[in-house]
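Sample A.
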Amino acid sequence: MTNLERVRRGLASNSLCPLCNAHPESTIHVLRDCQIVSTFWRQKLLSSHVQSFFSWDLPDWIQFNLGSKEMIEDVLCQSLAWTAHITATNPSSDAPSARCSTAIMWTPPPITWVCLNTDAIVGANTGLSCAGGVIRNREGGWLTGFNKLIGIVSPTHAELWAIYYGLQVAWDHGFESLKIQSNNLQEVHLLNDPAAANADLPIVQAISSLRNCCWMIELIWIHCEGNLVADSIAKMTPAVNYMLQVFPEAPTAIVYFLEVPHTPSLVQKYKALGFFSIKKKLTFF
């Protein structure tokens, strides 16, 4: 999602392109008009095509490119080379790396802290969203968990509701130091934005209000492979009951995932068995 679209939906306050910081980050800006991107295009286009190429609106521009087989093949090859060059010359990035040589696992909180993991799923057949979460101690032991049917909302909104209800449950249990782990990077950036309290989305304002209560909170991004327990409890949500369900003890179906050893070899084993997914999973209900 572009920054311009995020601002339109009330998910951000800054629409500028993060690469050039000169123009709003629209779709056509990302694909063609950004100074960094346009330099690449000018190197690949015939001089006779440059003027028309940069004057078309988005639909006509896409149609032109789809109608040129030679251009598609050439741009694809050059794009791969360009990506490799950018990756090699700019190793640091705020986004999670596609390559990871370290073990992907649940990370325990600091001493005296507890860890809240949250997740949300969307029913592929119904479009209903469900949120779930688990609070664990430093040793990974179950302290409490919850899930709730949210309704028909976007995946990002469902993730935000999961954070909100997780904070409510943690506050009701009297926890004073809370480390929140989410595998939704957009959500983490949105909630950690200093302007989150003034966001257009009421749910973001509500989360900011809870975070400002008398406790210590840290919100971080994690790989989805480290969020397996929260994902599992979200999938247990009944599709007919909108009541918040709190689990003082781990449900039988979750106990197995609490005991999964998080070592590099076993992570690869369980990934091969289908327990992990790179993309956000859809649940069929």
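Sample B.
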Amino acid sequence: MLGGDKCVCVVFAVNVPTVSFGLALGWVSLASGESGDGAAGAVVAAVTTFAASLLGVPLSAHALTYGRKFAVIATSATFVACWALKLWGGAWCVLAARVAAGLGAAATWGQAPLLAQEMCSAGWRGAAAAALVPAHNLGVLLMYLAAQARLPHATVLWWCLGLSVVHCFAFLLMPESPAFLAASGKLDDAERALRWLRGAPAAATLRDELASLPAPDTDGSSWYALAKDMMSDNCRRRAFLIGGFAVVGQEMCGVLALLQYAERVFLLVQDAGGDGTRSGTLAAINVTLAVSAEPVLVSPAGHAVILGAVQLAASIAGLYLVERLGRRPMIVWSGVTTGLGLALGAALLPLRPLAVLGGVAPAGLALAAAVAADSVGLQPAPYALLADMFNYKYRGCAVLLVTAAGCVANALEAAAFPLAAALGGLRGALALAAALTLAYAGAAHCLVPETRRRTPLQIYAALCPSNSDKQTHRRILARFNIFRLKDTTGNSSIEKGEGYMNGDIDSKVKKMNKEHDANVKKVKEDAKAKGDGCGVAGRGAADCVVSVLGAGGGAGADSTDL
């Protein structure tokens, strides 16, 4: 199997729990009927899942310390518990199942971009990190299809349970993350895992990737210490805030709530006194789901299937565009398009379905366009951008912290959108969502840098140009890479040995640099005394000077690009 094929398999395997969360979200929002006919039940169902995900963030962080494989399997295990509890039945079991789904949600949205970034080659990383979005949308669409087909609930639950159980065992066959193995000091295992993931790469390419893996972590820093260290540096702190803004902001645009509640959200308006008539509520539902050829809702699941299909197709297209066009343009232009679509939907809301449009309401088409624009750019690009901004040491911490903030944003949106619709009507809720989305796009245009195919140091140089010449960000510790031994009398590189050891910027930077300078000076003096330079065979290792990559502050070098 070629490296690209294996990359696709890895991304798919990593995102199976994300599909499971999409199934759980689709089940709560449309298919199960667990929340009954009341308005409060639908809100509680959604808020419970998102609120529980806050607890899932520290649990996911703890699981990651045991390995990426373990964390993914543990995430699937939470969905095994979710579907098993739903099969068991009962009010308390349903509540516990929603909590389990929330725990799994935090893990999926935190782990999937992290693992994709670590296990895929440079040309795939952006799309791989963003693949969780179409995976989630696929799960939602599958559940909508099950509801449209009127499959028995028990049948649907058994299929969902089977998917999670099979994934728990199948993922045992996947390799561990090479970056995690390298950081754990298992260099031989890291090389074997990298060879498997890349297929049969050229020797030079493999050496370069091995050299870019992180150094063994001897400190064993806690997540709290990592977060404190990350926030203590001005450029990393700014990158974290901008990346967090990009991810959390797109969660608050209103499209999630529109799809989360599907046919129920406007029944909440009626219960709160919004429209006052059953027919008015049904007409509003028909407009929002955008797909009916009749002025009266016939099948809510059928309408949601169309929106779900549009969302999935757009998010798949986004995987290509996020690498082709870049992160920043996708965020800005998708935000503008989504905001305009929501605003147009609010403006066209009073218009009835037109025969020239096949019976589809004009406002419905505008909202469908907003959903498509959100899926093609606003959903995938921020996650790719966030993963680009940090090296291995800080990436997991940053992603999980932003995931926690995203969970809060999701819970607030799930509660606030029905309230806005009840107080200001459907038009007011859509207008508010449009204003927030357009404001987000404008702020992203001013704040967000382009990160596609850039190292974290290059991104920091763009974010903090005034600090780009400071040693904190410019000087990379000595990278001892015995794949590249430099001749002291020339510029040739000699390939020799296996393995590597590289450094990373940490609190011991001055001490390590001082020790390195002393070692290099001693080696040079020994080589000068012998007078014969460095040879390939028959000459002592003391005659060789280990290449120091990035010494002096090359902005393009980063010892932990992965």
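B remarks: The chain has a mean pLDDT of 73. Strands lie at 485-486, 493-494, 545-546.
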